[in-house]
């Protein structure tokens, strides 16, 4: 145990965040996401939701200020709810933790899957909300 680090941040997750360089991406995946088939570096986040991880991660993780969209969401497919409630929760967390206005991009589902394959790591959570997946792009300090 270390002072000031939330228990949701495992040693493995802290190591991954520290290893990541500028421009690397990490996926926070909901419980429906096919994490095992999309990454060789999976962090077990079962028992927690994406919002809990987002809140904890952004205490340590700088978002990229050199890109237009340092945060990306999976856009719902036609016929599904266009703006899932959890997105507002994410926006609120990001606004509270960021010292610059963060723009969030919505990426088509299959493009999101392809992009996540190139991510540095995926955190597989137990989040039950649909379309609760997001990608964070690491910035610099």
Summary tags:
six-stranded mixed β-sheet, 141 residues, single chain, 6 strands, alpha/beta
Structure overview:
This protein has 141 residues and is an alpha/beta fold. Helix content is 28%, strand content 20%. The protein has 4 helices and 6 strands; from the N terminus they run αββαβαβαββ. Strands 2-5-1-6-3-4 form a 6-stranded mixed β-sheet. It is globular, with a radius of gyration of 14 Å. The model has no long low-confidence stretch (mean pLDDT 96).
Structural class, by secondary structure, is: alpha/beta
Helix amount: 25-40%
Order of helices and strands: HEEHEHEHEE
What's the β-strand tally? 6
Number of helices: 4
Molecular shape: globular
End-to-end separation = 25 Å
Which spans of ≥5 residues are poorly predicted at pLDDT below 50? none
Strand content range:
15-25%
> Biggest β-sheet: count, sense, barrel?
6 strands, mixed
Mean pLDDT: 96
- For the CA atoms, what is the radius of gyration? 14 Å
Within the largest sheet, what's the order of strands?
A: 2-5-1-6-3-4
SSE arrangement:
Blueprint: H1 11-19, E1 25-29, E2 42-45, H2 50-57, E3 71-75, H3 85-97, E4 104-108, H4 109-117, E5 121-125, E6 134-137
Parallel strand pairs: 1-5, 2-5, 3-4
Antiparallel strand pairs: 1-6, 3-6
Quick overview:
The protein is of the alpha/beta class and 141 residues long.
